Amino acid sequence: MEESKRDKEEEEIWSWGAGTEGQLGMTRLEDEQLPQLLLDLPSSFFSVRPISLLACGDAHVVTWGRGTSSQLGLGDMVSIFGPKYVKSLENLVITHVSAGWSHSSFVSVDQSGAGLSKDTVYGFGSRKRGQLGVSRDNIRIISLPQATIGLEGIEIVSIDADGDHSAALSVTVVVSGASSTKSDGHLHTWGRGFCSTSDVHRPRRLPSSLCFIQVALGWNHMLVLTGGGEVFMLGGNRYGVLGDPQKGGQRYV
Description:
Elements: H1 2-8, E1 14-17, E2 32-37, E3 62-65, E4 80-85, E5 94-99, E6 103-110, E7 118-126, E8 141-147, E9 155-162, E10 165-176, E11 179-191, E12 200-205, E13 212-217, E14 221-226, E15 231-235, H2 245-248, E16 250-252
Antiparallel strand pairs: 1-2, 3-4, 5-6, 6-7, 7-8, 9-10, 10-11, 11-12, 13-14, 14-15, 15-16
């Protein structure tokens, strides 16, 4: 009875905050102080499976809001007011998505072959500081998804995009006979450097013995949570965001 009742419940999406560039998915370009129900959503948006996170799903990716740096992945540099499917991702299984100020990143998984799944990180939008991890050429904006170089064959469990930098968490998969185990949480960063740190155009794994389980990027700093319950802050005015948390980070317990 309870399961049947849940099946009949309708899912809804609510948004609030700054909305002058269409990022709330409303028909009006206004800030909203209170949660507002998104009404202009196609029925197919909910047809595949229930939504667990607005930023990720197993079938389709939809974007809306500020698009002046092509961060919506729609092939243009136009802001839109309501959700629109990113057609170039329709054939991919998306597991993680992160939308930053001027670029976006996501992770797809290929489970078609035998053995372990293979993750691929993609990005689109501004790449002026290397935050897409695609190349070192002079192209400042990428309007369609391109694969990030340097994370091939790595299992990605989390990704974050904000400011002019990106970060991802990966795990090590150890195969023993017919079974496999996962251990450690490795932190990879790329994009804008701070203080005396130069920009990083390819993902770089931080040389740390710490096990990271969660990462959050701000405009000028990064927070990482370890498996032991410790939080390290990197970046800001004093520490380099792409540095080593064991040497340069501020610890919070």
